[in-house]
């Protein structure tokens, strides 16, 4: 292919244009990217989608133990779950746990993250201190709370020391306080890490927004909730979804280490019920039926949180 160009003396001259790149060369980078993604896709299908499908399959089986014969149960597991009062106690406890822990954790973590984002004296040290609960293993956290809440633990000792011995209690062994202790552990272990995430996101908000609000007479409280919060509203939704999933699916380990679901069923949650029926009662069909309901609850919760925190512009 040739093109016409004009020389300095005004005469036209022909010049050969470079040949166009072949279509195969233009598509080569995209094909290479697809090939590089194949191992990750295979890993995801085998270890993520596969177990998810297995949950629905096992929920339709009568499987009384790993080495026991398997038979098709149909909807019998669903009927057994819905007729079990322990299941409804677990739903109630999980609902209370989410209704208390999630709002308290998100609101307090956002306020704490906003304070750190203002770069007060020693803000770098504060970030490290807030991150400490995230560095402690779950058994170690449980031991800390057990040492504080056991009948002869730190809390009862402190109450007796200040003349409030009548308020002492076996906090982890009392039906009225066992679930509250687990909720306190969830909040303590998650609030610092969440605050660091909020502080990192708030640090990217332009300082001019806060300065303009303060020039207009807004205080820190109004600036925090009316100026900065709308800017990072979508990020708050993402963090809320993460903490929702962690509280919904990860509470079993705290229950297992501290209360074993008791006294009675006062601290049994849905995630712990899945573990209990699978590994203690050896009823895999029942366990995975609760797992399916737990998965659906998580999906509905994620969609609800996404709708609540979506941007309005």
Automatic annotation (TrEMBL):
Report the membrane topology from the UniProt record. Answer: Multi-pass membrane protein
Q: Where is this region: Disordered?
A: 1-28
Answer yes or no on keyword Cell inner membrane. no
- Which PROSITE patterns does the UniProt entry name for this protein? ABC_TM1 (PS50928)
UniProt keyword list? Cell membrane, Membrane, Transmembrane, Transmembrane helix, Transport
Q: What does the UniProt entry say about where the protein is found?
A: Cell membrane
UniProt domain ABC transmembrane type-1: residue ranges: 91-305
User: Coiled-coil ranges per the record?
Assistant: none
TM stretches of this protein: 36-63, 95-116, 128-149, 177-200, 235-258, 278-305
Please report the name of this protein according to its UniProt entry. Answer: Sugar ABC transporter permease
């Amino acid at each position: 292919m040739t093109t016409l160009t004009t020389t300095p003396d005004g005469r036209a001259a022909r010049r050969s244009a470079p040949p166009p790149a072949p279509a195969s060369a233009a598509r080569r980078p995209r094909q290479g990217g697809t090939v590089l993604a194949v191992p990750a896709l295979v890993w995801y299908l085998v270890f993520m989608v596969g177990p998810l499908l297995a949950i629905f399959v096992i929920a339709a089986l009568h499987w009384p133990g790993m080495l026991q014969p398997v038979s098709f149960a149909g909807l019998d597991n669903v009927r057994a779950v819905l007729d079990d009062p322990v299941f409804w106690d677990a739903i109630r406890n999980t609902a209370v746990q989410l209704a208390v822990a999630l709002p308290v954790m998100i609101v307090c973590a956002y306020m704490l993250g906003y304070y750190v984002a203002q770069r007060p004296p020693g803000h770098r040290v504060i970030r490290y201190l807030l991150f400490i609960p995230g560095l402690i293993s779950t058994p170690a956290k449980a031991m800390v709370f057990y040492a504080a809440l056991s009948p002869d633990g730190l809390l009862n000792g402190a109450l007796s020391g200040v003349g409030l011995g009548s308020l002492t209690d076996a906090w982890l062994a009392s039906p009225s306080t066992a679930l509250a202790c687990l909720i306190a552990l969830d909040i303590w272990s998650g609030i610092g890490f969440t605050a660091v995430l909020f502080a990192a996101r708030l640090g990217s908000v332009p300082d001019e927004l806060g300065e303009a609000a303060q020039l207009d007479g807004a205080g820190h409280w109004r600036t925090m909730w009316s100026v900065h919060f709308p800017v990072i509203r979508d990020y708050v939704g993402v963090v809320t979804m993460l903490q929702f999933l962690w509280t919904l699916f990860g509470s079993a380990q705290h229950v297992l280490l501290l209360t074993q679901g008791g006294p009675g069923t006062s601290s049994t949650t849905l995630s712990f019920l899945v573990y209990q029926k699978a590994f203690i009662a050896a009823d895999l069909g029942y366990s995975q039926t609760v797992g399916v309901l737990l998965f659906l609850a998580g999906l509905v919760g994620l969609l609800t949180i996404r709708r609540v925190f979506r941007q309005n512009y």
